[in-house]
Amino acid sequence: MIDELEKAMYIALKDLQEYYMKPGSISWGILFPFVFALAFMFRHGGLTTWLVPGMISLALFFGATSMSGMSIVFERRIGSFERLLLFPASYIGIALGKSLSSFFLGLVSAVPIFLLAYFILHVIPAHAILLVLAIILASFASSSFGVLLSFIIKEPEQVMVILNLVRFPMMFLSDVIIPVSLMPHYLLSIVLIQPLTYMTEAIRYASIGSCDIVSPLAAYVVSFLIGLAFLLLAAYAIKRSRT
Amino acid sequence: MDEYAIRVEGLKKTYPSGTIAVKGISFCVKKGEIFGFLGPNGAGKTTTVRMLVGLAEITSGKVEICKYDVSKNRKHVQRLIGVVPDISNLYSELTCYQNLLFSAKMYGVKGSIARKNAEEILSFFGLERYRDMKFKALSKGLKRRLTIAAALVHNPRVLFLDEPTSGLDIISRRLLWDELIELNKRGITIFLTTHNIYEAFNISHRVAVINKGKIVVVGTPQELGRKFSVKEVIEIGFYPYNPEPRDLLRSIKGALDVRRSNGYLELIIDNEVDALEGVVSYAKHKGLGISLLRLKEADAEEVFLKIIGERIDR
Questions:
Q1: Whole-number pLDDT of residue B300
Q2: Which residues lie across from B33 on neighbouring strands?
Q3: What is the DSSP string of A142-165?
Q4: Residue B23 above 60 pLDDT?
Q5: Confidence label for B314 from pLDDT (cuts 50, 70 and 90)
Q6: pLDDT digits (tens, 9 = 90+) for A67-123
Q7: A14, A82, A90 member nearest B55 (Cβ)
């Protein structure tokens, strides 16, 4: 177990060295969420208290998925990914390693929003420790989701196209920037099946002390289960990638 | 003690599309041997190696490496082997040393031993001065050598190489062959997959030839050369003129054919002593001088084509 965690950490550190400066990771993982948050700030004369959790969640989500997209699809294209399958490591260990590097970039992506909201706009979190937990869970779920999604993408040029094809609808249908109360009632069921909804709700509860559509417990538990499920599915996808 | 490093029994691979890439092959590789696995493109070489190293599912049959069943003990087997794929696929932003260290750690080699192994293997391949250079900045030959180094950093017992010298210039290729022979002398069993017959015949102790998913023959390069020897060729130049090929063919005992080639004549023979004597007698009888008389060695490619039962019309 310790051995597998160590190997996962080696993979994560290697990926961070290899990919953190790639244009795709920077533009879509860090710049986009930050610029998006700034745009909302200017539009409304400041980030509203309600919008801050959504912006953090969005930054985590875009940062984590962009990194895994870059690392996995690119490595599969040039044949480097197969190196990992030659090491005496479990498939879940490899999936965890790939998720961890994305996890870290997710955290880095959220930092500018966090600083903007809590130090410049003076938005004080309602539950600081729960906020840390929520951010960890959201980044974990996002990175595992990114790893899994990366296995259906074949070419590096398609990475951002396909990722955005999935991410943008999620962004609008997950209570991130548009409150559910403003949506038609029939969209509620779609909102409830979006993983991003639960991550955002967990961060929202820790930030402002209340959730919009699910209970706080459900938000945290489902975020964790989603991350775990995506990780297991990603490990299965890695196993299946052996021809 | 088991004398075999690799045992393969009835190994078969069928892809989901129904294509049968490997058709129930069996062979053994002795410990300490360089075993050449030779075949044309699409013969099933790479598919076989991928199954041996745990990169591809085995449809049926059994593979044992150092007595461990690959299907049942994948992780254990992977600790005992090093694999060099047909492409140099290390990580481009990492330096040579970082790449080796990463591989060592992933193989479970810890701390100071990992660092020592990485330094030693850099030294073995003469890569010390590239230690802190990024992989992407290396030349093709250096990338290849570092990729092989990365497969050795955990001191494996068996090294699998898939087309190790493909795309390298002749100097890099010879250098790499020497390094592989040296590694073998240090006790590493080498499984060398190649479509290059010269490579297989030059450095292997034994060679298996695979074609269309089946092992055609296994033997030492000498055995294969004898068993599938092609007719030899004598290259001859006469002066002041070359005679008519038909006349030469009629006059030389053991001559099978004569053809013109670059101002000389090529005599296809089945007995070199009779033929050489015949050429000298013929020249004397016709009052001709001999400007060139050379026995050409059997062409390894011809041997290969003969083994796999195919021919190329030149």
A1: 64
A2: none
A3: HHHHHHHHHTT--SGGGHHHHHHH
A4: yes
A5: very low
A6: 877 788 888 888 889 999 999 999 999 999 999 988 998 888 888 888 887 777 777
A7: A82
Q: Which of residues 52-81 of B touch A (CB under 8 A)?
A: 53-57, 74-76, 78-79
CA distances from B201 to B113, B131, B216 (A): 36, 33, 16
Higher pLDDT, A170 or B231: A170
Spell out which residues of chain A touch residue B98, defining contact as CB-CB under 8 Å.
Answer: 17
The B68-69 sheet, strands edge to edge? B20-30, B4-14, B60-65, B68-69
Mean residue pLDDT across chain B: 88
Whether the model pTM is above 0.95: no
Residue with tokens 């010879």: B174
| Separation CA B256–CA A81 (nearest Å) | 55
Q: How far, in Å, CA of A233 to CA of A181, rounded?
A: 33
The residues, any chain, with a CB within 8 Å of residue A56's CB and separated by 6 or more, are: A110, A113, A114, A117, A135, A203, A207
**Residue A155 contacts B where some CB pair is shorter than 8 Å:** no
Query: Please, are residues A224 and A135 in contact by the beta-carbon 8 Å criterion?
Result: no
C-alpha span between B201 and A110 (Å, rounded): 59
How far away is chain B from the Cα of A79, in angstroms, using its nearest Cα? 6
Q: What is the dihedral of CA B179, B185, B186, B192, to 10 degrees?
A: 60
Give exposure, A45-60, as e/b (b: 16+ Cβ within 10 Å). Answer: eebeeebbbbbbbbbb
Does B106 sit within 8 Å of A87, measured CB to CB? yes
| Domain boundaries along the sequence of chain A | 2-240
| CB contact (8 A) between residue A83 and residue B90 | yes
Residues A56, A41: Cα–Cα separation, whole Å: 13
| Angstrom distance (rounded) from CA B110 to CA B20 | 42
- B74 contacts in chain A (CB < 8 Å): 88
Q: Are B160 and B83 in contact (CB under 8 A)?
A: yes
Mutate to test the interface with A, among B91, B94, B98, B148 (most CBs of A within 10 A): B91
In the predicted model, what is the mean pLDDT of residues A197-205? 94
For B192-215, what is each residue's pLDDT tens digit? 998 888 888 889 999 999 988 999
Test B94 with A17 for CB contact under 8 angstroms.
Answer: yes
Residue B167 has pLDDT above 80, yes or no: no
- Pairwise CA distance, residues A199 & A140, whole Å: 10
Chain B touched by A3 (CB under 8 Å): yes
In this complex, the residue of A7, A242, A243 whose CB is nearest that of residue B106 is: A7
Q: Which of B54, B83, B93 sits opposite A18 (nearest CB)?
A: B93
pLDDT at B313 over 50: no
pLDDT digits (tens, 9 = 90+) for B56-115: 999 999 999 999 999 999 989 999 999 999 889 899 999 999 999 999 999 999 889 999
